[in-house]
Structures are given as structure tokens and as C-alpha cells.
Amino acid sequence: MDKITIKDLEIYANHGVFPEENVLGQKFLVTAVLHTSTRRAGLTDDLTASVHYGEVSHLIKKIVTENTWKLVEKIAEETAYAILTAYPLVSQVDLTIKKPWAPVGLPLDTVSVEISRGWHTAYIALGSNMGDKEAYLRGAIEALNESADCQVTAVSDFLITEPYGGVEQDDFLNGALALRTLLSPEELLDRLHEIEYAAHRERIIHWGPRTLDLDILLYDDLVLDTPDLHIPHIELHKRDFVLIPLAEIAPWKRHPLIGKTVAQMLEELNTK
To answer: I need a surface site. Which of 33, 85, 105, 141 has the fewest CB within 10 A?
Structure first.
């Protein structure tokens, strides 16, 4: 990926743990590396095909000067979020925030915080077998689209499926969606749980009936195993009610462990 770099943008602002820093202010130096394709701009000489680094510089200044925070880490997070949500052509931003006048009582050149933030692609399974099933699924899609850090980019058709897991209950309505997100996997899981909770989801019986079930199937090409989260989803390749809608929106997506595409996994499952 190509990069546009804004180096050591000097900004005078009021951030710091000590009250004097919030009143008197001090110098900050901001470096932003914008990951974006410059190919079309380079071929056409058209500024609208690129990211206007002058505008980005003024956005950084606005975020840093119009707020007061204690931590440099907070400045970095808010600045990265502002850039990524304001400029669709920027897929990732690497930020360095320097604080050369940091009041540590010792001689130093600077204190700095460096972060890298960007957009990720996740695939989410949706399911419901209580109440107005379609309304619950569409409500979840709308909820994910409500904040700037999540953008639903594709939604499958919904299909009626038999219950999974051996518990006697009503049929499910299932689907899948593609999501562009700034959230980490753990943050995304929390967001999904919040949406489930708002739909009055109760976790009483394993494999039991539910108003809304949202599962992370894939997140970029990440492989993650924690007590609370497994990516790719452990049962992904075994469930036709997941693979059928997923194959509709991302048949080419490859399982990072099995090495097969969604379409291939579905074909193999259908031949068993």
C-alpha cells in the first residue's frame, strides 16, 4: 500500500495530567502516515483521487487544539479515529504524537506515543428463532450501522433453517453480513453482545432459543483463540446455515486455517 506522510506537524495545545499543562499548554509534534492507494491520482493528476494532506493537517490541528485530555494516548486514539472516519480512501493510519516538553523533571529529547489503526473486514452470522425474527435481524444490521466505526457493506438473503444442537424449538431465520470496522475483535464482540442484550437475548439453555444470535465468523485473516473468542468460528466449516448465506456475499473468502474458500467448504459439506 502507498503512503502519504505528514511529519512533525507542530501544534500548541493543552493536554497533560498536571493542571498547569491544561492551563499553560505546550508543544506537540504529530506525524501521520496515511495508507492509501496513490495510483489513480498519479495517473490522472487529479487531487480528488487522492487524500488532501493539507486538509488532514488542519483536521489534526482541530482535534488536538479543541480538546483537553490527560494522556497522549487519548490524543492519538481520537486523532486516528477522526482521520479514518473522515477520509474513506485511508485504510490505515500510523500516528506518532511527540511531547518534547513533557514535565518529567529530567533532561530528555521527547516523549512519544505511536499507534497504528485501520479498517478491518469481519463477517458476522445472524440468527433468530423467537418473536419477529426478521425484525430482530434487521434491527441488528441497523444497530451496527449506527456508529461511524462500523459499516455494513453486504447482507445475505435470510433463510429458514432447522434448529442446531438437539434442543426442541422453533425454526431459525439465519443470515450473514460483511462488516468494515475500526473495532478490535474483542471490541466487536462486546458490541455484538450489546446489540443482543438490547434485543432481550437470554443465555439460559446452550443451543436454546434466542431472540438474536450474532457470531463473528471471520476477521481479516486473523487466527485468535482466547477463553471468550475463537476466530475463525470453530463450527464455521460444519454449518450449512452459516456457509449458505456467507457464500452468497463472500464465496471467495478463504478460511485462514483450513485454506479453503467458503464456496469450497459449502460444496464439501453438501457432498457428505
So the answer is: 105
